[in-house]
Amino acid sequence: MLRAVAKHSAELAEKVVKSGALDALVNCLEEFDPSVKEAAAWALAYIGKHSNELAKEVVNVGAVGLLVLCVQEPELTLKRIAATALSEIAKHSEELAQAVVDQGAVPFLAALISHPDSQLKRQVCSCLAQIAKHTVDLAETVVEAEIFPRILNCLKDLDN
Asked: Which CATH number is associated with domain 2-156?
């Protein structure tokens, strides 16, 4: 339900945040059930996508480190949405992209460039691009994760 509300606008996402839902969502990322983690990651992605301020709220509540752990989980759908959530956070500013980097996301994302699932590869490439776009240093961090030549192989992928 939180996801359904937060996705529509920054104002609605802010109401979700002001209700105190972020702490509960972060707690859900620590649950054993992957579907609970996935639902929480979706809600956090929708909250973080709207603005720099809302993305900072997601970072400040400690969600990034748990989203990085979700990227490492075996469940494909959880990997996808965790990468999406990290991308939505990183896109806003250098500071937020650095927060994603500081939580160790880049090596795990870079390793997924060669994953056979096209949707996951798209989300991973998007997230790495959102990190790299802000500064030379952040771009170098992405490159240092040994994305080459794997990233170039995506150009040959059968998925357009």
From this structure: 1.25.10.10
Residues 135-152: pLDDT tens digits? 999 999 999 888 888 887
CA–CA dist 116, 120 (Å, integer) = 8
Dig out the tokens for 149 from the structure: 């030549």
Please tell me whether the overall predicted TM-score, pTM, comes out greater than 0.85 for this model: yes
CA angle, 48 then 12 then 35, to 5°: 55
Tell me the C-alpha distance between 91 and 95, whole Å.
Answer: 10
Domain borders along the chain are: 2-156
Segment 47-76 mean pLDDT: 95
User: Residue 14: its pLDDT value, please?
Assistant: 82
Looking up tokens 């990183």 gives 90
Contact by Cβ (8 Å): 29, 70: yes
Q: Position 3: which residue type?
A: R
Token pair of 74, please? Answer: 């075996």
